[in-house]
Amino acid sequence: MARKYTPTISYRLKEIPIKEIKVWKEAQARNLDREGISELAKSIKNEGLLNPPLVQKQDKKTYLLMSGQRRLAALKRLGAKKVPVHIISKKTEYDLENAKAASVVENIHRKDMNHKDIADACKFLTEQVGKSVAAKSMGMSPATLNKYLGFAGVPDRLKSFVPSMISRDEVTKLYLIVPNIQKAEKIIQNISKLDSPLRKKYLTALSQSPKSSHQKLLKRAKSFRIKQNISLKLAKTHAKRLSSISNKYDLTPDEMAGKIISDYLKRKKR
Predict the structure, then answer these.
(1) 8 A C-beta contact, residue 175 and residue 168
(2) 3-state helix, strand, coil in the chain (%, to 5)
(3) Closest by alpha carbon to 108, among 128, 134, 73?
(4) Distance from C-alpha of 63 to C-alpha of 55, rounded to nearest angstrom
(5) Count of Cβ atoms closer than 10 Å to residue 98 Cβ
(6) First CA to last CA distance, the chain
(7) Domain extent at residue 260
(8) Exposed e or buried b per residue across 128-166, where buried means at least 16 C-beta atoms within 10 angstroms of its C-beta
(9) Model confidence pLDDT, tens digit, residues 74-91
(10) 20 within domain boundaries
């Protein structure tokens, strides 16, 4: 069984030839921000290498990179022949699965990463080490990881229902609400015959009350639809007043009535 990833490790500082540092195969395919690497190289040149890369000895003349892929790329850009590194001691070595996690986690916690960068990193790490290790390594809950993964994080069994019975967006939302595959499959069967607008309202009702029965959720979803279309009968004096106000704001009476009700409900909510 693989040892759980943990940041508690021991290491020693040593200078080694940069050509002896190897990046594991899958990580070599990662797209690194060229502009960011250039800025990092300038920083290292001006201020020095403040945090050496972390490596683990693989054989006599090879070290496997654990973290610091961006720093290593910057050092190569500077033409470095030898570099200081932190070498993990034998008693706290990683197995390969956790080594992959360690080498990606550092970039995920960069302060300048946007949502897409984090999502791409989450997807990449999940593909290499699985959801459980990925979530734990990144300090995220499985639910948060799934939000970043989006459709990519949906199990294949549920993806098989797309697009014949449910859309990509719908199955992604469903899996976030109901991460149990069997339950999610049953819900897909229940809502597959509904039209798209009603399915959307059903999922909204499900998110508000995940334990409710199908019939209750369907009733609530239909009530959402009904409440969005309300007819009003006004007294003649009120109708004239509404028409006058509508002309003032260049709106139809229906649009003006909707605005008045919406404004009123917003004030009541405060």
Answers:
(1) no
(2) 60, 10, 30
(3) 134
(4) 6
(5) 20
(6) 54
(7) 236-269
(8) bbebebbbbbbebeeeebbbbbbeebbeeebeebbeeeb
(9) 999 999 999 999 998 877
(10) yes
Calculate the dihedral angle through the C-alpha atoms of 134, 137, 142, 145, rounding to the nearest 10 degrees.
-70
Pick from 70, 95, 120: which residue ends a domain?
Answer: 95
> What pairing do the DSSP bridges indicate for beta strands 21-22 and 82-88?
unpaired
Q: What is the pTM of this model?
A: 0.51
Q: Which residue has the tokens 């943990």?
A: 6
- In the sheet that holds 82-88, the strands lie side by side as 11-17, 82-88, 54-59, 62-67, 21-22
CATH at 51: 3.90.1530.10
Do residues 103 and 27 make contact, with C-beta atoms less than 8 angstroms apart? yes
Rounded CA-CA distance 10/95 in Å is: 15
The C-alpha atoms of residue 134 and residue 127 are separated, in whole angstroms, by 9
Give the model confidence (pLDDT) of 97-124 as tens digits: 666 666 666 555 554 556 776 777 778 7
**Using a CB cutoff of 8 Å and minimum separation of 24, what contacts does 158-164 make?**
158/184, 158/185, 158/188, 161/185, 161/188, 161/192
DSSP annotation of 90? G
**How far is the C-alpha of 57 from the C-alpha of 65, rounded, in Å?**
9
Provide the token pair at 11.
Answer: 């290491």
Residue with tokens 């996690």: 101
φ and ψ at residue 22, rounded to 5 degrees: -110, 140
Q: Angle at the Cα of 64 (from 60 to 68), degrees rounded to 5? A: 140
Tens-place pLDDT, residues 149-175: 888 888 899 999 999 999 999 999 999
Question: Which amino acid, one-letter code, is at 230?
Answer: I
Domain count, the chain: 2
